[in-house]
Amino acid sequence: MPEARALTVDPAPLAPPAAPTVAVVGLGYVGLPTALALHDAGTPVIGIDVSEQRLVAIRAADVDLPAGDADRLGGALDGGGLRLSSIPAAVAAADAVIVCVPTPVDAQRRPDPRALRAACANVVANARPGQTIVLTSTTYVGSTRELLLDPLAERELHAGEDVFVAFAPERILPGDPTVEQRTVPRVVGGATPRCAERAAELLQPTAGLIHRVSSLEAAELTKLYENTFRAVNLAFANEMASVSTHLGLDPVEIVDAAATKPYGFLAHYPGPGVGGHCIPVDPHYLLDPLHGDGLRAPIAEAAMIAIAERPGQVAARALALLRERAVSWDEATALVVGMAYKPGVADARESPGLEIAELLREAGVDVACHDPRVAQVRFADGTVLRSVPRPTAGMFDVVVVTALHGGERAWLADCDNVLDATYRLPFGNRTLV
Q1: What are the start and end residues of each CATH 3.40.50.720 domain in the chain?
Q2: What number does CATH give the domain 3-214?
Q3: Which amino acids are annotated catalytic?
Q4: Has residue 75 got a pLDDT over 80?
Q5: DSSP secondary structure string, 116-168?
Q6: CATH class for the domain made up of 282-432
Q7: Mind listing the pLDDT tens digit for each residue in 278-287?
Q8: pLDDT digits (tens, 9 = 90+) for 35-45
Q9: Contact 219, 167 (CB under 8 A)
Q10: Which ranges carry the UDP-glucose/GDP-mannose dehydrogenase C-terminal domain (predicted)?
């Protein structure tokens, strides 16, 4: 591939414009909405992503955004207020840099911060005096100091004097249009008070409120606390769903009733598992370093084990239903409804539905999938499974429902072999996990 094509989508020069500019590094589910929010506030933005494929998709508006955001994206690109680049060194053209790269886990559920390390190393290498640098990626406590603050100091760029470094964890909720980014408070921790002030000024137009904490590490731990809290409660919600089902009760009815208490209870609902890029991932950035220090966090550890085991429980229940119907597993057909990790998104990362489908395949079942937002998925062995466009009742021996985007209920109501792992179908022909 020619060098120029590999480096940039837009041929426009990337010299610093007259107005203050922000470079957003990483244009995924956090970076792209962040870039749009900054653009809406009148800030020129350079959106940087090392994936040419991602940049082409953004240019074509072929990305997972609400309809309103898709319109805003087109306007930002057409008007020139948002420029796209795959040149990492383009951060040098900006007055501020916001790092939004993903922080996944590997197959053993251990943190994999390679993308974060590479992005921060590039930011450090291209940093210049006067820049404000904000890390937003969810990561282990001490990351901002290790990956930004100390390497910048080695370049004689000292935080609070030459550059301004902060950590401000993202709080974007994909798939829920009722929670807008600009209405959610933002936590900011700076390397110095002046660093926190500069970061707060940068982010204020994109957030409902800025809540400052005392340090980088306090802000980092805040995000890990938030998502570990959710992981613990979701694991408990699944446990209580099993208890409710055992007692012949509707788990969602129980949660809704408990939620009428105006204090001391926060509703969490059961499901087929916990997917996506946050809840099943982020707590490991808390736990893994603690294990290295010889410190245990037994409640969080137990929750993450329960979350990891949940798709297997759903798959086992589906196999038991086939046995009850006297259908041999190696002759059975199954449809998994929902390859997205949650309703309202087209993202299959850490998807419970995908893992359930894989477990059924391993048992010998002929598996198909249906998801109006996810056209196809790829299994670990490379097999590609494409979404069945129009399934009907009677096509499969068992139908496992793991995520509902809204249009699936009509034909599911005619099925007599539904395993509802969402606990949300209203009709009486479903089986619960």
Answers
A1: 3-214, 282-432
A2: 3.40.50.720
A3: 278
A4: yes
A5: HHHHHHHHHHH--TT-EEEE-S---TTHHIIIIIHHHHHTT--BTTTBEEEE-
A6: alpha beta
A7: 999 999 999 9
A8: 999 999 999 99
A9: yes
A10: 335-421
